Amino acid sequence: MIKEAIYHRPKDNFAYAFNNQLLHIRLRTKKSDLIKVDLIYGDPYDWTDNLWNNKKKPMKLEGSDELFDYWFAEVTPEFRRLRYGFEVYSDTESAVYGERGFLDKDPRDGSFYFCFPFLNAADIFQAPEWVKDTVWYQIFPERFCNGNPDLNPENTLPWGSEKPKPDSFFGGDLQGVMNKLDYLVELGITGIYFTPIFKATTNHKYDTIDYMEIDPQFGDKDTLKQLVKTCHEKGIRVMLDAVFNHSGYQFPPFQDVIENQEKSVYKDWFHLKEFPVQAFPEPNYDTFAFTHMMPKLNTENDEVKKYLLTVAKYWIEEFDIDGWRLDVANEVDHAFWRSFRNAVKEIKKDAYILGEVWHDSMPWLHGDQFDAVMNYPFTDAVLNFLAKDKINAEQFAQQITKVVASYPANVNHVAFNLLGSHDTQRILTTCQENMDKLKLLFLFQFTFIGTPCIYYGDEIGLTGENDPGCRECMKWERSEQNEKLLSYVKKLISLRNNHALLRNKGEFRILEASKESNHLVYSKQTADETIIIAINNAANDLAITIPIDFTHKKPVNLWNGEPLEESSNLELAPYGFTIIHLENNRVTAKND
């Protein structure tokens, strides 16, 4: 037994309140080192011998990554408080693990164990319920649809007339989105994420000039108000993009600094290194990356904080938007985000707060800042497996297990799962234009935990390299759309919308992942039903045996609605898949 590899701490993803009564407990151990783990638990004030036999519970091996096993149990403390530890077993020895370390046997002393002091309702991570059922669609407004040519900025190009350049304008606007809402409804979309729409100089609008005004090339406030109202009438939520880490160079307070230097009343709004402030040859002020056009805002400054919180509240109060996506969120101080959450939730309790964080995001997901982050670890894993063939099915299973184990379950339920965006290569291009691989990407995205997002045009097969190639104009002529792919995506979304188990109900579990044949089998399961998905990520036919007994489970192929024989033997075509629904009692994997 490698005791040095056994890890737990009573917080974050290792110990948390799932709801008002239930605690989730997770233990990490060296991969394949232990054969059994029991959770030992009791009330801190009632830790006595005669209670003890009723306070031990086996933990389930929920999965493994490259280095570790993850063990899981849930418990309902009678008095909402808990002392707990772990009895761990290898082939040759056992030990008891608590906050004070390891002992050979249970000391029957509560102070030795980990402590969850009290399950306070205010400490429970709570994100909007509606997000769990939402299918998002990301729109880059300048490239989605030109609905009002009268708004076209100078030098606007004919729609889709050439490949996009960093400074191209094609005239997309809010009226264009309004004109295409029925397309989104037919697709099955229930949430729109807009990249920035506020006044700015660029086509991407991440260099904000005025946070309180719509960019005139996109329309006006009346148009936005009507757009949000119409979206709501059609069952679509609306999330805007807030760039609070930095402003644009032309932001009036920064221009005041450039003009008045140390005499500027706004000099403390930014991170200035010296005077005179200058952009060239290199900026002597902090910026986003090294871009002189995007000076970093000082969100610790009271005036800046008040201004930005006013912005956050204004667009909810006046336009009834449903959420904020927060650009470069990891570079803004935590105290600001706590104030931001309080301000937003006070106005609209079920507003969705989504942070752009590309790495481990637990510090932002304690329930006091964000509801979710953009789930790039998910993106990297699924692209490396299904699109790039950089990892095999076994390695993918390990990486996805790590993604799931990195956060509490109620955090995973609202994670923002994307395959591509305005910052990345088009996913069909990443797949080297292999349509079968793209379909598998969508399949996993729409059957995994979390809330999926489609980047505009991916559903019709748009291609393109990184920015600006990934920001091509949306193609609206049916002859230019891949209608088979579009129908496939519509069907996936419909399946997800019609089956709660394909959304965020039940337990996700990987049943089989083969590095030899490169196939993956996973399930979503409750006590009443199970859905099994099998994927063949290889260019050859494959015969597999699902590690589940189908007897008396009424198996049905969800993709075509046809009943199946009660046999767990399946044939998968090259880059093929199957989705199987099982009824009745909870099924158990044969190797459990």
Characterization of the model:
This protein is α+β, with helices and mostly antiparallel strands. Helix content is about 20%, strand content about 25%. The chain is built from 13 helices and 28 strands. The strands form 6 sheets. An 8-stranded parallel beta sheet has the order 18-17-16-15-12-11-20-19. Strands 3, 4, 7, 8, 9 and 10 form a 6-stranded antiparallel beta sheet that branches. Strands 21-22-23-28-25-26 form a 6-stranded antiparallel beta sheet, covered by helices on one side. A hairpin with a 2-residue loop joins strand 8 (about 95-100) and strand 9 (about 100-105). Helix 8 (about 375-385) packs antiparallel against helix 12 and helix 12 (about 435-445) packs parallel to helix 13 (about 485-500). The radius of gyration is 26 Å and the shape is globular. The two termini are about 20 Å apart.
How would you summarize the topology of this molecule?
Elements: E1 15-17, E2 23-30, E3 36-42, H1 49-52, E4 56-58, E5 60-64, E6 68-75, E7 82-89, E8 94-98, E9 101-103, E10 114-116, E11 136-139, H2 174-179, H3 181-187, E12 191-194, E13 198-200, E14 208-214, H4 221-233, E15 237-242, H5 252-260, H6 302-319, E16 323-326, H7 334-347, E17 352-355, E18 372-373, H8 376-387, H9 393-405, H10 409-412, E19 416-418, H11 427-430, H12 435-447, E20 451-455, H13 483-498, E21 507-513, E22 519-525, E23 530-536, E24 542-545, E25 556-557, E26 562-563, E27 569-572, E28 577-582
Parallel strand pairs: 11-12, 11-20, 12-15, 15-16, 16-17, 17-18, 19-20
Antiparallel strand pairs: 1-2, 2-6, 3-4, 3-7, 5-6, 7-8, 7-10, 8-9, 13-14, 21-22, 22-23, 23-28, 24-27, 25-26, 25-28
